[in-house]
Amino acid sequence: MGNFSMKENYFKFILYLAVIVLLNFAGITLFFRADLTDDKLYSLSPASKDVVATLSEPLTIKVFFSKDLPAPHNNTERYLRDLLEEYAARGGKFFNYTFYNVTPEEGDLTQNTDENRDMAKDYGIQPVQIRIMENDEVKFKNAYMGLVMIHGDLIEKIETITSTNGLEYQLTGAIQKLNNKVSALLQLKDKVQVNMYLSTSLNTIAPLIGLDQLPMLNKAVADTIEKLNNKILGILELKHIDISDKKNLDMVSKKYNLMALSWPAIPEKNISAGHGAAGLVIEFNGKTNTLPLISALELPIIGTTYQMANPGELEEELNSVVEKLIGINKDIGFLSGHGTHSLMPDRLAMMQGMPSSGMQVLNTLVSSRYSIKQLDLKDGPIPDGLNCLIIARPTQKFSDYELFQIDQALMKGTNIAFISDSFNEIMPQQNSMGMGMPPRYEPIDTGLEALLNHYGIKIKKAYVLDKQSYTQQVPQNMGGGEQNIYFAPMLKENTINNTPQFMDNIKGLVAMQISPLELVEKNIDTTQVTATKLLSSSDESWLMEDSINLNPMFIRPPANEDEMKSYDLAYLLEGNFTSFFKGKAIPEKDMGEKDINEDNKEGNTESTLENNKFTGLSAENTFIETSKTAKLFILPCSQMLQDNMLDPQGRSTNATFILNIIDHLNGDDKIAQLRSKQQTLNPVAQTTPLARSIIKAFNIIILPVLVILFGLGVLAKRTARKKKIANRFNA
């Protein structure tokens, strides 16, 4: 009996051992991970999974990261390894990554490490200086923290990775760009034409304008294009055009915005009078772009100087232009003119000591994914192929004809983001009479208000003030403490609608000088158009109307709480809109505006006059009365686009919100979800004092008591088991 029991135990041991071995073998290929974080920070987003799952050619990532770095850089390396492992699990055989050793051993560089550093240098990855604490001393150390992605002949790099914030977004964006580019290049049927307008006549005057190397520019540019061609599957076709005839030169320079140079005869130098041009014109599918090969620069005292393009930098510029022309990045229209904000800083205002209203940060962030096309309605119509049109704070009146163009763009399915202000801030004149005077706020009326009202949204001429607002520290010489900036509401919790995918994880925003919105329900056909409220103020809000004074020292909440309520601050309308001009005559264009169909040329004048004489002529379907499915986003707060409200890395929730809106209007919600994971503002949920006391008591008293009781229960169970075993053997 005892031998059988012993054999049974041996058999069980061998069986258990076999099961453990088999489970370990299965775990090599069959495994799962559970990301328990609320925002799924340590698992791939759907956008990342889709990007690597659609790879059609091998993607190789070479990582150059120094070892044994201090915190937080060691955590960054660990996170990067885990992230790349997740990509590899989804990408399969097409996704490969390698970490290269670039760390010296015992103060000396091994041959392998030396080769890896040279490789990093060849790819443009340079060491960065980091600060470390060693033996209670602050020291500086050079460290490699970058990677290179290679897909076919295309290369993308992230030169410095100093934080885990937004790293997945950077990687996925770069992989998507490479993958899209390869697909686009492989599908091209026509070549991209690169016309190099470089007049040999310029060589005679090159030494006189400080361009001694100009005769060699032709070959340098050709070599640069050949080098780029090797990386982008040979899609470029170079043609050198030597032009010196004045008539042809004038025509080409006006058409392509090329710099044209003319000079008189200089007998003493044996130089004849002549003309010339220098520039690259890139053409593809009827679209053109121009890069200058010679540029003029005005310098104080010195005057006009001329500079020649650097062939080394030209490759990157040319590559960017080609990417736009072949349509890798989606186009975004940005309305210029009519007093709208500029994408670049207002240098004149800065020189005069006035605040700049530029949006350079927004321009940089958006341009990394999209191609921005600035549009002036006086120069021509809104292109049909736009996915999205941004109208940022116009201040000047639109003509009816211009409103018609905007209306028809929406009717054609172009999504529109209208980001406005209700008032125009007029600064006092800088003289003795204006010293110490506050700015004046004049209501803005551009005509777009009537358009929006027709679509179902009314912007009220007022500012929303909120007790839940941004606070700033008051200098000690002014009494110290904190001061509420009531016209800068802090939006959080139930004031942000997180239901739409692109709004997921937007936990907090800061608005500035924002106006309230009202739905004009009688103008909204709920069977055709859906209105979604995205932002609102808290219940402790009130309005500043008529007399506007934004000096924080003079703003106080109303004494009567009944005067405070929540106000709607941002809406998204989606569906089939009805044209504002339905049942109306098409507006006539102003004399300064160009024709919609640039056909009123000299040859068509006679036929146009004949048509005007024929009064019986009638036309139908001259414009679209009901739109395709389109989206209209309204945010009455242009301050949220300003450089001082966005961070250059795009990690703040303000930047995330604006970029997510643009992605949504371009049908890319998955990228919007991915970007939301990097948000930096995550406020604690507001609770009542009683709830806070209960939570505090639970953590301080009840939770430890529960742990102690659990421990006593385990101890009692073990004690009872020991007694049971002792009684069995004693018996």
From TrEMBL:
<dbReference type="InterPro" id="IPR019196">
    <property type="entry name" value="ABC_transp_unknown"/>
</dbReference>
<keyword id="KW-0472">Membrane</keyword>
<keyword id="KW-0812">Transmembrane</keyword>
<feature type="domain" description="DUF7088">
    <location>
        <begin position="39"/>
        <end position="149"/>
    </location>
</feature>
<dbReference type="Pfam" id="PF23357">
    <property type="entry name" value="DUF7088"/>
</dbReference>
<feature type="transmembrane region" description="Helical">
    <location>
        <begin position="697"/>
        <end position="716"/>
    </location>
</feature>
<feature type="transmembrane region" description="Helical">
    <location>
        <begin position="13"/>
        <end position="32"/>
    </location>
</feature>
<feature type="compositionally biased region" description="Basic and acidic residues">
    <location>
        <begin position="591"/>
        <end position="604"/>
    </location>
</feature>
<dbReference type="Pfam" id="PF09822">
    <property type="entry name" value="ABC_transp_aux"/>
</dbReference>
<protein>
    <submittedName>
        <fullName>ABC-type uncharacterized transport system</fullName>
    </submittedName>
</protein>
<feature type="region of interest" description="Disordered">
    <location>
        <begin position="591"/>
        <end position="611"/>
    </location>
</feature>
<dbReference type="InterPro" id="IPR055396">
    <property type="entry name" value="DUF7088"/>
</dbReference>
<keyword id="KW-1133">Transmembrane helix</keyword>
<feature type="domain" description="ABC-type uncharacterised transport system">
    <location>
        <begin position="330"/>
        <end position="605"/>
    </location>
</feature>
